[in-house]
Design brief:
Elements: E1 5-7, H1 17-20, H2 35-48, E2 60-64, E3 87-89, H3 119-122, E4 130-134, E5 145-148, H4 152-165, H5 179-183, H6 205-209, E6 225-230, H7 235-245, E7 251-256, H8 269-276, E8 287-291, H9 306-324, E9 332-337, E10 340-342, H10 344-352, H11 358-361, E11 404-405, E12 409-412, E13 414-418, E14 430-433, H12 436-440, H13 476-482, E15 499-500, E16 504-508, H14 514-523, H15 535-547, H16 571-574, H17 581-594, H18 598-608, H19 613-617, H20 623-626, H21 637-640, H22 656-662
Parallel strand pairs: 6-7, 6-9, 7-8, 12-16
Antiparallel strand pairs: 1-2, 2-3, 4-5, 4-15, 9-14, 10-16, 11-14, 12-13
Length: about 675
């Protein structure tokens, strides 16, 4: 059933001229005794409408979502967090419009399916793996620091041995440890909170885990990984994301709202797709949609309300996502945007191997049974002297760092344009380990600063500006002041998190055609930059920025660097040996002997040109990511192939003329030929 109704026009200034439409005429003032009151309201509204971020929308048709339960094989209702009856704008503003009839709908890559990874990725030999880390406090000089991974069972044994030898609670001081001390070959004490050395191989294991109480710690060797992302309407990126990570991530928890962060009503595109089509049939058992209204904010700075709304949405999706996936102690979650993509094999290594957890969780530890009389709960026991920091969080020493960032290459429009080829200063998405003690209000057994719990300590952790998204700050001037350089006078190495070295891609504005760009402009938190332009002017501005290598938002200060895009051919190019402990040992020897390493230089170049496996295996589907002329001056595959053949087309069987028209061209070096 669909509950269609008309929404009234709101008295707001349009974001751009076209957005205002034809429905911006003034409503007649009623005559009679209410006229004086009406005039006062008009005066008040006139003052309020000075806000350049208030918008005016024409009439639109709304419908309500009717959900049905969708249970996975473990018994989780994946649709539980769809708000039943949630009003949202109709597709194309037309009653009973279908998602596939949407003006901006793009088809999935033919035969869209999960990328398959080799057994050495899905079930790695942990001791063979070395994870490179950025020591940001060293201003990126020299080689990255390398931490060797270990079998989790072996790590559990070492914890037991360490406890026996340290009955006097001689704790490691992770707080004041240098990066070298944190990653050296010594054992770094970490408590998984789980004692049974025999791995739980029960086929119904996860069905039991989701029913277990929060104070029960599951087997860390079978921990899960969740991804929590925001979605607007970027189906092409979602196709890529789901395909790239399906074999590794356990649940994709996806935020969707019936309004953009800029304030426009919108359809629930993903929710409608899941309910109406089989587009994501091969991924459906891992998708958890979470529909939420955009929270309103009363105060915002010159950048407008979009960023604060976005920040609140990120907090919501983490909180709701952990509930929806029935998270338990020790599960891993990453949070960020859909276009922030870490390397899939790195996620698998972190999921299956141990020895790195202390970088985020410090000494670790698990929850005590709530039936244990010694278990203290500061949520209920107000006598426990726990203070709060300025963010409203309890000053309890749970973790060493709030999260670990993936440092990823920042690409704009396509893999041709890159912010910086040498130094990465984009620190998203972020990874954290779920700590049930925090959810239960339990105090930890051990601290991360080498002190006893009875010692007088604040436990308050300051956070360096560089590890927080810009939208957290209310004043853009403060943010710019704090981020002038990497050697700021306020810089404290302890406060800055280590980051996973060159560990992924930021696919900023990787949109297939100009219509999608216009939709992005109207939807995103940065939208105020294009406030006073018509759609024609916006179109011209975007095309000019793409052709001249300028970022899509903000002032044109200087063009971004470009990169020759390569289609990987050899195994070394497809899967750079970036996580080989043996290779990093060789690089260190070369560097120590000669002050440089040819092996490192070669690895750097290969890593720079690495692309996601899904893109590599389907260059026609993602042609615009390799050659930005596609979708602008060249036609995309679905603009050439008739719509009736979208789902059945086999690119290997089409005629040569059509194939040449939709395929990126490469030279003898396997570099994509891109003529601006």
């Amino acid at each position: 059933e669909k509950d269609t109704q008309k929404e009234p026009v709101k008295d707001r200034k349009p974001e751009n001229k076209k957005a205002a439409g034809k429905d911006t005429q003034k409503k007649p003032v009623k005559k009679g005794k209410d006229t004086k009151k009406q005039n006062k309201n008009d005066s008040k509204n006139k003052t309020e409408n000075n806000d350049p971020f208030k918008i005016n929308e024409p009439f639109y048709v709304m419908n309500s979502i009717k959900k049905e339960p969708y249970y996975d094989k473990y018994g989780i209702d994946l649709n539980e967090y769809i708000i039943n009856g949630m009003l949202n704008k109709e597709i194309n503003n037309s009653t009973n419009g279908k998602i596939e009839e949407w003006d901006l709908y793009t088809p999935p890559c033919p035969n869209l399916h999960p990328v398959h990874y080799s057994d050495d990725v899905l079930n790695p030999v942990c001791e063979d793996i070395g994870i490179p880390l950025y020591d940001i406090s060293n201003n990126y000089e020299g080689l990255p620091s390398i931490i060797r991974l270990h079998n989790i069972t072996d790590q559990m044994k070492k914890w037991g041995d360490w406890l026996n030898k340290n009955s006097d609670n001689n704790l490691p001081n992770y707080r004041n440890a240098t990066i070298d001390e944190l990653v050296n070959d010594d054992y770094h004490p970490y408590d998984y909170g789980y004692l049974n050395l025999e791995k739980n191989e029960d086929e119904n294991y996860y069905s039991e885990v989701i029913k277990s109480p929060m104070d029960q710690v599951p087997d860390p060797r079978r921990r899960r990984v969740f991804s929590m992302i925001l979605f607007n309407s970027e189906f092409e990126l979602l196709d890529l994301y789901l395909s790239e990570y399906y074999e590794i991530i356990d649940y994709f928890i996806i935020y969707e709202s019936n309004s953009t962060f800029s304030g426009y009503k919108k359809p629930l595109y993903l929710t409608k797709t899941l309910l109406e089509t089989n587009r994501y049939e091969k991924f459906r058992d891992k998708i958890i949609p979470v529909t939420l209204p955009v929270l309103q904010v009363e105060k915002y700075d010159q950048r407008g309300p979009g960023f604060p709304r976005e920040h609140l949405a990120r907090r919501e999706i983490i909180e709701k996502g952990l509930r929806a996936a029935h998270a338990r102690h020790g599960d891993i979650f990453i949070h960020g945007d859909l276009d922030e993509m870490p390397k899939a094999r790195l996620l698998s290594y972190l999921k299956k191997c141990g020895g790195w957890e202390h970088l985020q969780m410090g000494i670790g530890g698990g929850p005590k049974s709530m039936d244990d009389p010694l278990s203290k709960n500061y949520f209920k026991d107000k006598k426990i002297p726990i203070t709060k920091d300025k963010f409203g969080q309890f000053n309890v020493d749970y973790n060493l760092k709030l999260s670990i960032p993936f440092t990823v290459f920042f690409f704009e429009y396509s893999f041709h344009m890159i912010q910086n080829q040498e130094i990465i200063d984009f620190f998203h998405p972020n990874l954290a380990i779920f700590d049930a003690r925090r959810a239960l209000g339990q105090l930890p057994t051990f601290t991360n600063d080498g002190k006893n719990l009875n010692d007088q300590t604040s436990n308050e952790i300051r956070i360096h500006a560089r590890n927080i998204r810009k939208e957290v700050y209310n004043d853009v001037k403060i943010f710019n002041k704090r981020n002038k350089s990497f050697d700021s006078s306020n810089f404290d190495p302890y406060l800055v998190q280590v980051g996973f070295w060159k560990s992924g891609w930021h696919l900023s504005s990787f949109l297939p055609n100009i219509k999608q760009f216009l939709n992005k402009i109207a939807s995103y938190s940065h939208y105020n930059y294009y406030n006073d332009l018509t759609d024609k002017e916006i179109r011209k501005e975007i095309l000019d920025r793409i052709r001249n290598n300028y970022y899509i938002f903000g002032e044109r200060k200087k063009p971004m660097p470009t990169l020759n895009v390569k289609i990987p051919v050899t195994d070394e190019e497809k899967y750079p040996n970036i996580y080989s402990y043996k290779l990093w040992s060789q690089i260190k020897k070369e560097y120590k002997k000669n002050g440089k390493s040819p092996t490192f230089d070669k690895l750097n170049d290969i890593v720079l040109h690495e692309i996601p496996k899904q893109v590599m295996e389907n260059p026609i589907c993602y042609s615009y990511m390799l050659d930005r002329n596609f979708g602008l001056t060249k036609k995309l595959w679905w603009e050439v192939i008739p719509k009736k053949n979208w789902n059945t087309v086999d690119f290997k069987k089409i005629d040569k003329a059509t194939l040449d028209q939709i395929s990126p061209k490469v030279n003898k070096k396997n570099e994509v030929i891109y003529d601006v």
